[in-house]
Amino acid sequence: MNLMPRNAFGPLELVNLPSELNGSVGNNRAVGGRPQISAQNDVDAVKAWLARFVETRTTFDSYRKEAERLLLWSVTELGKPLSSLSHEDLLLYRRFLADPQPVARWVMAKGRKWPRNDPAWRPFSGSLSASSQRQAIVILNTMFAWLVNAGYLAGNPLSISRQRQRRSKPRITRFLDEPTWVEVKASIEAMPNETDREREHYFRVRWLFSLLYLCGLRITEVTTNTMGCFFSRRDRNGDDLWWLEVTGKGEKTRIVPATNELMMELVRYRREYALAPYPVPGEPTPLLLPIGGQRRALTRGAVHLVVKEVFERAAKRVEERGDEFVSRANALRAASAHWLRHTAGSNMAGAEVDLRFVRDNLGHESITTTSLYLHGDDDERHKATERGHRIAWS
Q1: Which of these, 290, 307, 310, lies nearest to 299 by C-alpha position?
Q2: 3-state helix, strand, coil in the chain (%, to 5)
Q3: Mean pLDDT across the stretch 38-59?
Q4: What is the pTM of this model?
């Protein structure tokens, strides 16, 4: 294997394999049919698969890393193209991931990460943990399955691997029960609000917790969306309903009912910043602002800190009542902003809000093109959320 040409080993974008190793005549190449990609060799086929992920950088980098590792291992250690790999070969590769040898060829110099175009670059920074090995195989299985569907490969050498039976997901436990949630709200309402700074902090906390609970937002959704995402739309009965358009996880967009309670809190919050009662479309004002009147978004870390401070304040209030309240105080100290999202979902489900509406409110699935025209369904979701999901500030 050491006789391989120098340009046969390196990052995927720099690899230039000889014809006997490039997969142009791989044993597992599909014969006949109608290929859906134009790739004639393994490197180009892998690049065609990776092209689907170029807009999501972290996913692209992760998938490219696993693909190039396997391709380089195949041609270097086995002397065969990726498109000739068998199921038994992949079993050997799984063991290789746990201990890439020889180290000088496969592992970067300790304590240093080299640029991809540097001669010192290597595919690994060390041995992979068991979980990382499993993740690598999952990614490669996805790649092989796609190449089969694309008509490039005849079969997926990983498809006959033993599949673990999927466990059903446990019930959500990281949420605040009703008595604990009441304590959190009481703690917020007891915050000092005499000075201008105290008032600004008080109304910001009320607004933040209203967003997290009434809309079920993730912290990232709070920090990356703006007040210009609010809009009103007239329903079939002539009533104006407010909505919040949220771009969230995976760059998916959903619209969340902005109930009367939420809009009242928004008006109060904007008043503290001398803003007009209601935002206008496209307004760049962040959903949550720093203390002091600056018009910039807070970081995720800053919002996490605000939430943890509120939970700590509530925990101290609770534990002052005696030892029997220690467990509740401990739960509050363990809680995070995401617990409010789970609390929101649990409350909506408990209030018999249609589970389809809960799903759409929390954005567990993306909004389909068709749903953009089903305003009647959206309006019913708004009304069901209004009836069954309240924060009830005193």
Answers
A1: 290
A2: 55, 5, 40
A3: 91
A4: 0.55
CA angle, residues 247, 249, 252, in degrees to nearest 5 = 50
Burial 344-372 (b: 16+ CB within 10 A, else e): bbbbbeeeebbeebbebbbbeeeeeeeee
Radius of gyration of the chain (CA): 27
* 11 vs 167, residue with greater confidence: 11
Q: What is the DSSP string of 292-332?
A: TS--SPPPHHHHHHHHHHHHHHHHHHHHTT-GGGHHHHHHH
The CB density around residue 27, as the number of other CB atoms within 10 Å, is: 12
N-terminal to C-terminal alpha carbon distance within the chain: 75
Q: How far apart are CA 305 and CA 382, in angstroms?
A: 31
Bridge-partner residues for 267, per DSSP?
A: none
Average pLDDT, the chain: 86
Say if residues 298 and 290 touch (Cβ distance below 8 Å). yes
Is 314 in contact with 150 (CB distance < 8 Å)?
no
**Which two tokens mark 260?**
């009367």
Are the beta carbons of 333 and 311 closer than 8 angstroms? yes
Q: Which one-letter amino acid corresponds to residue 176? A: L
Rounded to whole angstroms, the Cα distance separating 383 from 236 reads 12
Phi-psi region of 30 (alpha: psi -120 to 50; beta: other; left: phi over 0): beta
**26: which DSSP letter?**
-
Give the pLDDT confidence of 137-160 residue by residue, as tens digits: 999 999 999 999 999 999 999 987
Residues 6+ apart with CB under 8 A from 377: 371
Q: How confident is the model at residue 5 (pLDDT cuts 50, 70, 90)?
A: very low
Please determine, for residue 26, whether its predicted confidence score (pLDDT) is greater than 70. yes
388 to each of 216, 301, 381, 392, how far by Cα in Å?
14, 32, 10, 11
**How far is the CA of 355 from the CAs of 60, 304, 361, 374, in angstroms?**
34, 28, 10, 17
Find the helix or strand (DSSP H, E) in which 234 lies: strand 230-234
Q: Which domains does the chain have, with CATH numbers?
A: 6-149 (no CATH), 178-388 (1.10.443.10)
Measured distance CA(290)–CA(68) in Å, rounded = 45
SS3 255: strand
Fill in the DSSP letter of residue 94: H
- ∠159-165-166 over CA atoms, to 5°? 105
